[in-house]
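re: the backbone from monday

yeah here it is again, tokenized this time
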């Protein structure tokens, strides 16, 4: 079982920056892809950014050039640096990790509990 714990959300003015962190814990697994999703009120959850096990990244067009995803494999931690924040970035941000259970070889996906990011004028 993998537990994901997010931190770093909060209230920020438009144009400001925030850095989200998500640490994975638990034994008997190997993390592969890690990602950040977000869900704004009345909207569906959407992919923000993803990073593979070897560091390849991909971003939603709405955040490209402003957000940067990175990971520390030694710490099983993924980060999301968010710059030039806009009102429309306001949402609950969720960490996601795909993992292989080492004893069974089966894949599973895990979610964090979410962290609120609010961008104000």
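seq for it, each position gets an aa:
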């Amino acid at each position: 079982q993998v537990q994901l714990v997010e931190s770093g959300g909060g209230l920020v003015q438009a144009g400001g920056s925030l850095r989200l962190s998500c640490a994975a814990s638990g034994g008997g697994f190997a993390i592969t892809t890690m990602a950040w999703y977000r869900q704004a009120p009345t909207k569906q959850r959407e992919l923000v950014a993803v990073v593979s096990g070897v560091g390849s990244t991909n971003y939603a067009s709405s955040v490209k050039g402003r957000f940067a995803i990175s990971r520390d494999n030694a710490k099983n931690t993924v980060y999301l640096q968010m710059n030039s924040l806009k009102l429309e970035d306001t949402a609950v941000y969720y960490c996601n990790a795909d993992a292989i259970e080492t004893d069974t070889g089966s894949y599973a996906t895990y979610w964090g509990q979410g962290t609120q990011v609010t961008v104000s004028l």
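The first strand starts at residue 3 and ends at 7. Residues 58 and 94 are 16 Å apart (CA to CA).
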